[in-house]
Structures are given as structure tokens and as C-alpha cells.
Amino acid sequence: MNPTDLAFTPALEQARLVRNREVSPLELSELYLARIEQFNARLGCFYHVAADTALADAKAKTEQLARTKDTAELPPFFGVPTAIKDLNSVAGMPHTYGVAALKDKIATYDDGVVTKMKLAGFTILGKTATSELGSLPYTESRGFSPTRNPWNLDYSAGGSSGGAAAAVAAGLCAIAQGSDGGGSIRGPAFCCGLVGIKPSRGRVSFAPVGDHQNGISANGCLARTVADAAALLDAIAGYITGDPYWLPEPEIPFLAATEQTLPQLRIAFSTSIPSIGEATELCQQSVIETVQLLEDMGHIIEPNCLDFSPLIEPFTKVWAAGVASAGILPEVLSPINRWIVQQSGSAGEYLQAVTEIQILSRQIVSFFECYDVLVLPTYLHPSIRIGEWIDLSPAETLQKIISWIAPCPPFNASGQPAMTIPTDFDRHNLPIGIQLVGKPAAEATIIALAAQLEAAKPWIHHRPNGFDS
Asked: How far is the first Cα of the chain from the last one, in angstroms, to the nearest whole number?
């Protein structure tokens, strides 16, 4: 296998190659570090490259592999390189939150999700780019290079997990962790042609720190295949003592769900978000073609969707409070984040917004008493150009954001699992995709459905030009 093909090989297959001793952990890390050195300046997807620690870890794993008699006992992703979003803490690495003033801040502990990824056998290549404080759906933090879309460098990779998505899409790692507080996994996956899973509230721990946004955010997965994303979710899921939310263990591993035969499902769909707007023509077409395919598979399809517009005001209030709660001096933040902090209001207003979200979330979850899955556009239009909204006022930018990402935040509010899968390209060679939303704690259903769609319309052979050699 040539190096480029190996770089774009799915993570589970890389792990198999390691266990079979067809490639070593050191060879994989050296391959990706070379690609990062070659391409990162063009993409801006890594804020920190941990070359020395990655190589030391990969060398130790290579030596361990040589001593191991039964490689089946190795962790599932033993020797596979990955990356961590710079909203999450990795001991000994910078932890900037996308704030240039914090470039010299070195983390002293691992987040729980990082600990679980290390236990799963991953080697961490570095920290991926995020929008400042993770607050925006594009990754253009001041003091850092903008994160560009590998499919078209004039366009954004999305945000706030834009660095993770660009890195996976360009073959700078096979799989990556992200987080999603309003579409921050699903949006970058949509922009970059990936599978992105936002799991249910409580599925993945925020240990050892707390969740400061009343449960709207979730750690999750970005990958090039459904199976890779599902297996990463298996690795990072699970309760850690003291978590404010928790779920029972799934009946079967999420990876096993990719091979599960589903019963006939009742599936709702919409190409628009009532009171907000229609998706662009190609995004609508992707939804229509997807539900036609699902109907051909034997599922029951009905057009239906809730009006999510009452969520906008309280969700925005909680989102703003999350930015304010970072406790970072406003003068070091970008103008839009300074403005967002000013919108956060009082503690009483925050709690009123939380109550409104909880009431509206009951209506969203009740909708799923009649349906197993909801199919929606991920975003209402494809990716934006780098700097496209830079001259707008913060209030104007917020309206642009709402009109773009509207299909995603409702399921952060309700805590339901949702995932994006790629479907097509637009005239600018930008990927687009659709979103599958499941019942609470029903990740297995949408993962199984996504695997069926992936098998019917494979995506893995697509690679962005300029990064495939």
C-alpha cells in the first residue's frame, strides 16, 4: 500500500494492519506527521503538533507490539494516530480554547475523553483548531490561521470542530474527536464530507470538569466511515464517577450496530425548518434522495417537522452564557465574542432560558413518540467563504449563523443523538450531507441506518484534490 492510500485508510483498518504487523505504530505516526508538515500551513487545522511525544508514544507501542504474542488482546485502536480538539485538555500540551492570548497555557490534566482515547490505544498527534471559545460555526480565530476546507481552500471547514474535520478530510489523521454544542461536529462533518456523531446527553463524560452549558454540548466523533465513528463512540462512551448525566450501557456496541438489520422504521423528514427557511436546492435534493432510498429499503416515510423557532431566543441566551462563563478577559476576545458576552444577561435570565429550553425540549422529544428517526438537512446551505461575514456587525452575523445552522441546535437542546453523513458535492466542489436524528439514547438506530445508507451509496473513495498524493 502506498503512503497516500495508507493515510486515507479507515482507522479500524489501520488498527487491523497494526495487529497483523503489516504496519507499525511508528510508521503510521511518521506518515501523518510528514503530511501535517506538508499540508498544515495550507489548511490551518492543527494549532499544536506534538511530534516529539507522538513519536515517543508510537515507538513505545511499536516495541510493545514486538513483544506481544496475542495481538487480539491489544486495545481496539492500538497505534492509530488521532487528534484532540483544542477545547479539550491534554496534559503537557497547549490548551488555548482558540484564544491567541492563551497560546502559552499548558494543560496539567487529561480530560476524561482523552483518557479513554489513550486507553483505546490512540497516539495523539496534537491539538486541532477551534473557533474562539468554540462559539462560532467557522474556524477563523484571531491570531491563528483560518481553517480551510480541503475540498476548496477558499471556503471554511466549519466550526467549532473545524480543525478536526479538515485534518480527517485531508488525510492528516484517520479519525478525530470533536465536540458539539450547536452543530459543532455535524456542521464541520457536513462541510468536509465526513461522518460526524453527536451522541446523546450523558453518553460521553465531561470529567473531570463540569458541563457549563446545561447539557447542550457533547463530545463526539469525526471519521471517514460510519464504522470508524461508531467504534470511536464505543471507546469514549461511559459514565465517570460524579457525572451530572448518565445513561445505561447500550445493548450492543455501537460498532456492532453497523452490521445490524433494522426492522421497518417510521421516518419523518423535512427540507426546511419551519419559520426559519428552506434549505438550498441541492441540500433539499440530498434529503429527498435519501428518504427515497430509505423508502426503497422498506421504511415508512412521512413529511413532518416541528417549528423550532421558539428555541432561538433561550438557546442564544444559554450559548452566550457559555461564552461568558469562560472567565476570559473580554479585551482579549474577538469583537463578536465580546458582543456575545454582553448578551449573556443575569443569572436569573439564564435560568429562565434553561427552563424554556427544557419545556420546548419536551415537545421535541414528544415528536419522536410517533417517529423513530427524523431526516433533515445538516445546514441550510453549503459552507461559507473564508472571511465571508467579517464585515458584518455581530447582530447581523448571528442572524446569518441562525439561517445556516438552524437544523442542528434543537437536538443539543433536547439531548438527542444526531449524526451527519455525506451525500453529494455542490458546484464549488464542496461536500454536503444530511442529518439523522434519533430517539433519546438511540444512537444504535441512527448508526445502523447510516451504515445502510453508506453501503448503498459509498463515499470512502472520495478524496480532496491536492491532498491525495
From this structure: 13
> Could you give the number of structural domains in the chain?
1
Q: Of residues 61, 85, 118, 198, which has the active-site annotation?
A: 85
Q: Model confidence over 39-76: pLDDT tens digits?
A: 999 999 999 999 999 999 999 999 999 999 999 999 99
Q: Nine-digit cell at 53?
A: 511525544
Q: Letter for the amino acid at 5?
A: D
Q: What is the pTM of this model?
A: 0.98
Alpha-carbon Rg for the chain, nearest whole angstrom, is 21
Q: Could you tell me the residue range of the domain that residue 134 belongs to?
A: 3-456
C-alpha span between 318 and 313 (Å, rounded) = 9
Segment 430-458, tens digit of pLDDT: 999 999 999 999 999 999 999 999 999 99
Within 203-332, residue ranges assigned H as helices are: 226-236, 254-257, 281-296, 312-324
Least confident of 2-11, 107-116, 145-154, 204-213: 204-213
CB 217 within 8 A of CB 211: yes
The single residue listed with the C-alpha cell 443539543 is 412
Active-site residue flag, 325: no
Collapsed DSSP state (helix, strand, coil) of residue 223: strand
CB 78 within 8 A of CB 14: no
Lookup result for grid cell 487529561: 110
* Annotated catalytic residue within 24, 29, 141, 160: 160
- 313-330 pLDDT per residue, tens: 999 999 999 999 988 988
The answer to whether residue 467 is domain-embedded is no
For residue 419, the domain's CATH number is 3.90.1300.10
Residue 197 lies in a domain: yes
* Active-site residue, from 161, 184, 270, 344: 184
Indicate if 393 belongs to the active site. Answer: no
